[in-house]
Structures are given as structure tokens and as C-alpha cells.
Amino acid sequence: MAKPCRLGCAACCIAPSITSPLPKMPQGKPAGTPCAHLMDDLRCELFGQPERPKVCGDFQPADYVCGENREQALKLLTELEHSTGHISL
Ligand code: SF4
Ligand code: SF4
Fold first, then answer.
1. I need a labelling partner for 44 at 20 to 30 A (CA). Which of 9, 21, 22, 80 fits?
2. Predicted TM-score of the model (pTM)
């Protein structure tokens, strides 16, 4: 069974860089910057829309990126970003 995504986390919408253009971030998203499409409640405003980058839809929760809590996820995703130069989501 797939790991469920943690409500109120959004670490993967903050820590990694995204190279695909986003409607509000046409140059892509820099690492460590919250996505401009993240809403106040930390949900994605593009969810289910064709403008949402494919990488976001393809990303699956997993222990090695999500950790036990939001702080761990931010740390793990930042480490991954720094070790690879980018995260291939
Ligand atoms: S890091 Fe994992 S738990 Fe957190 S929002 Fe992304 S997929 Fe969900
Ligand atoms: S488009 Fe949505 S899922 Fe993708 S990084 Fe931005 S807020 Fe997160």
C-alpha cells in the first residue's frame, strides 16, 4: 500500500527545485522556496488542473523523502536536493 501524504506538510512543495514552468513561477521553482501555488492551508491550488506540473503529480510519498514528520521531510528533501543538484520528482 502506498504511504499516505501527511496533511499540512507540503515539504515537497518547498524544499525541492522544480524546473518545469508554473503559471505563477514561469522560470520554475527555486529550492527552499515555497511554491507560489501553495495555499494558506498548504494545499495545492493547481491540484487536478492541467497547469500543475507533471512532476508534482508523479511524486509519491515515501519514507526516504517524507520521514516521520514535516521537519524531517524538509531536511531529507533539502539534503537530496543538495546531493543531486536537483530532485528528479
Ligand atoms: S513530503 Fe511527503 S508527506 Fe510531506 S507533503 Fe510531500 S509527499 Fe506529503
Ligand atoms: S504546483 Fe502544487 S504540488 Fe506542485 S509544488 Fe506547487 S503547490 Fe506543490
1. 80
2. 0.91
Query: pLDDT tens digits, the chain, 89 residues: what are they?
Result: 678 899 999 999 999 999 999 999 999 999 999 999 999 999 999 999 999 999 999 999 999 999 999 999 999 999 998 887 655 55
Ligand nearest to the CA of 28: 2
Which ligand lies nearest the alpha carbon of 59? 1
Output the nine-digit C-alpha cell for 83.
546531493
Distances (CA, A) of 59 to 41, 65, 89: 20, 10, 5
Asked if 17 and 88 count as a contact pair (C-beta separation under 8 A), the reply is: no
Listed by start position, the domains of the chain span 11-84
